[in-house]
Specification:
GxxExxY; GxxExxY protein; Trna Endonuclease, Chain: A, domain 1; single chain; 5-stranded mixed β-sheet
Length: 144
């Protein structure tokens, strides 16, 4: 029997709502602008700071380093921190790495399950063109 707030398998959604898609496009636009101005190769924290500035200027609501609690059988067993929780429904994780690896994707998928949302973003700023660093993670991508 599931408990409230328990980390369960991913949402049973395959296509995110249109409002979430619009939010993703706005965040992607902010990331492209940050990358255009800063380029590749900086520490992740620099991109995080710049994304906070850019999203604020664009009126995109977000919480930075948001703490998400993890529950097991109704008992809090820990927490994780996400780089950004945008508008209370979009996980945005930033990286500045040579290559996105499977554990990076799993991390975002786990955070999505915690907040029960069908879509997340993994943004890697260490790329020549930002569009190459934008990774949409959708609920149907959840591992069994």
């Amino acid at each position: 029997m599931p408990y409230d707030n328990e980390l369960l398998p991913g949402p049973d959604l395959h296509e995110p709502p249109e409002e979430l898609d619009i939010l993703v496009r706005r965040v992607n636009g902010a990331a492209i602008e940050v990358h255009r101005r800063l380029g590749a190769g900086l520490p992740e924290s620099s991109y995080e700071n710049a994304m906070a500035i850019e999203m604020t200027e664009r009126g995109i609501p977000f919480e930075r380093q948001k703490r998400l609690e993890i529950f097991y059988k109704g008992v809090r067993v820990g927490y994780v921190k996400v780089d950004f929780l945008v508008d209370g429904k979009l996980i945005v994780e930033l990286k500045s790495v040579v290559e996105i690896m499977p554990p990076d994707r799993r991390q975002v998928k786990t955070y999505m399950r915690i907040i029960r949302q069908p879509l997340g973003l993994l943004l890697n700023f260490n790329v020549a063109l930002m569009r190459e660093g934008i990774h949409r993670i959708i609920a149907s991508d959840f591992d069994p």
